[in-house]
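User: Can you write out an input/output pair for a complex, sequences first and structure second?

Assistant: Here is one pair. Inputs:
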Amino acid sequence: MSTTLKRVHGFLAEFDSVADLYHAAEHVRDAGYQRWDVHSPFAIHGMDHAMGVKRSKLPYLVFCGGITGTSIAFTLQTLTQTNFWSSIGLGFLQTLAETYPTVVQAKPTDIWTLPAFFPVMFELTILFSAFTTLFGLLALMGLPRLNHPLFASKQFPKFSDDGFFVVIEARDPKFSQEGTKSFLEKIGGKNVELVEDDI
Amino acid sequence: MEATTIAPHSEAHTGAPRILDREPLVLNNRSYSWITNRICGIVENKQPLLWWVLMVPSVILTGIMVFCFAYLISTGVGVWGQKQPVAWAWDITNFVFWIGIGHAGTLISAILFLTRQKWRTSVNRAAEAMTIFAVMCAGLFPAFHVGRVWMVWFLAPIPNANAIWQNFKSPLLWDVFAVSTYFSVSAVFWFLGLVPDLATLRDRCKPGLRKTLYGIFSLGWRGSNRHWSHYETAYMLLAALSTPLVLSVHSVVSFDFATSIVPGWHTTIFPPYFVAGAIFGGFAMVLTLMIPVSKIYGLSDLITPKHIDNMAKIILLTGTIVGYAYCMEFFMAYYSANKFEFQTFQLRSLYGASTWAYYFMFGFNVFAPQFFWFRWCRHNVWVVLAVCMCVNMGMWFERYVIIATTLERLLIPGSWRAYEATWVDKVTFLGTFGFFMMLFLLFLRFLPVIAIGEVKGVLPQSNPHHDDHGKDGIQEEDLMDYSDRHVPKALA
């Protein structure tokens, strides 16, 4: 549904090169803006520093995912192959899961058969870590998202080819219709455009 | 864009030789939009005639493969040539062969990423695609090898009515976990790498079905640096996870053999030997595919002689490791004074029924790559392709030698039997090549064959400090004080 009412998303400004974008990002950071971003066709080395973006929290999530994988693999294998759980007084788990020790290859049914379980523990650690990486990343990025006000801009699709853009959003406390525009022009921004969003 | 053209490297440096000069990764100072147009053009333009010439037989071969498996299901696993004592033969050979092919993809995308080998960016996408397709081909064989393929879900640890669980102490079950994890993680890695490039394709499409599909799969990517920051971390994490994974997968495959007590299989050298062999065979397949792709689609500015040279060196290195392993397992068979072990090797290589396979293996894998000691061989694509074809064949023979010729001559001479592959074995294997080629051609048709964003990222002008140090960016002279070698830069 489209109406004539629009909401201002922010100002979009284009820069000529990676170096210009990098210096522009430093200026925007130093001017004290909070809700702003830089759009580029590839990851620019050092841009996090120029923007003042903190390190991603993703590794902590992935660590938890990995530990989950190891634990699941350990539990799965010990519960279905050994007496380990009853030996530590948690035999009811085995009753609950209706499993019993599997005696094959003359391997012991106590915890000391653990080395034979390492490969599967390793693989599930990797598997769970990898999927945590994927879904954790999507959660942190707020994607997938099929539309965004920026896609309404005619010049914005250039970001995936050779365009370098800075966007300062209207929800930034320092945003002002005139001040932000002139600021972007002052730091070298070209084609400064007011991006609007359908309500 | 004017900032994207720079002067060639060498002009500023005349006089004393620059020992640390690096070859550019993208030739002819191509601009960002040239890279975008060239790679997206492959997907957007009509395919060359050769694409159809390859696609049609690939589809036919895939159909034949489906027929062979249908014939196997309807008749029984006896249509393959396995008989006691050769219970593992072409099918397991093909499985190990295809799994090995896949390893180069993960090596390029993960290990070379961690070691900051920037040249990987031109080949990693295609190599990862190749990995996934090769693992798909590989997975078919053990699935049908179990005999009753409709029971193959018994491999998965799912509670079932029999209350019988898998034997987690068995290397065969480790293999199920290793290969399925490998496939899943490779697919995640590949997809994540594709997202920014799918956004590029999306932004170039006219509205329609294509744009919608590229739009959905690019997840609404908008190149935001706040996203790139997380994305780069995720990419690094996946690389760090895939590196031990790729080493573990072929190690676990080798455990299928090494943990048994069959003479010729029961050796501790197997895991490193298999991993080196897998990387060796995989790189040969990458070159076999990428040299024609680069010539047909005009990508020679992106896949340069330097890339081919580097991969040829890796083939030489891993091929030599494999050669060392062949010699060492022979020596250990002799030195262990275990007569069964030593006789296995004598039968394999000196006077058994299948010594021809051993000589094919040794010649193709150990001698053929030795050409790569010479620079002109690494720089002549015909020599490279010829060596790679030798390696492709040699690696299949390696697995055949290890698997079939060992089982042909087990411990009891009374049970010795020469193994003969049936037509179903041979045609099924041929069919998987068609399946592999079909998937790869579809990949060329619908997805960017080179990682557009990553290649742009290694251009000199992509360094934000590129202009701070004159036209060539940071050079070795800026960092090191070699007074005798310092050449003053010419003013632009």
